[in-house]
Amino acid sequence: MEGMETRVLMAVCILLGLVSVGVAAPGSATFYKPHQPSDCHRVKEPGPMVAAASDSLWSNGAICGKKFNVTCLGPPSTGEKFPCKGSVIVTVVDRCASPRCETTLELSRPAFNKIVNPKLVKIIIDYKMV
Asked: Is 71 helix (H, G, I), strand (E, B) or coil?
């Protein structure tokens, strides 16, 4: 019986691990103007939907070239009303280093404008690697 309990416990742990992979993480975003050369030297900009990753995501550049689905949740407690416009998929092509970087991701202007009113400067997001 003990072997069966161990197998069930292992199966539950594996399933929980698989579920957590697809969960979005909370964060914040602003916009920036991408430049070349970027900190992701080996990644060629794949178009206008790009982002710079903060130090919390950077991982010595391992994040370069990874794609994220970024969803606008709203402004950071300013009380400002505006419509979020959904999600955008971006590719990380640069680093947003501390102390200048105060957000999780900096999105290119086209990516930022796709998910939020362009009058805003900073937004609360959910993001998930795809």
From this structure: strand
- 3-state DSSP of 29-58: EEEECCCCCCCCCCCCCCCCCEEEEEHHHH
Sign of CA dihedral 114, 117, 120, 126: negative
CATH for the stretch 24-129: 2.40.40.10
Find, among 104, 107, 110, 108, the residue nearest to 126 by Cα. Answer: 104
**Could you say which DSSP state residue 60 is in?**
G
Q: What is the pLDDT of residues 51-110, one digit of tens each?
A: 999 999 999 999 999 999 999 998 876 666 677 889 999 999 999 988 878 899 999 999
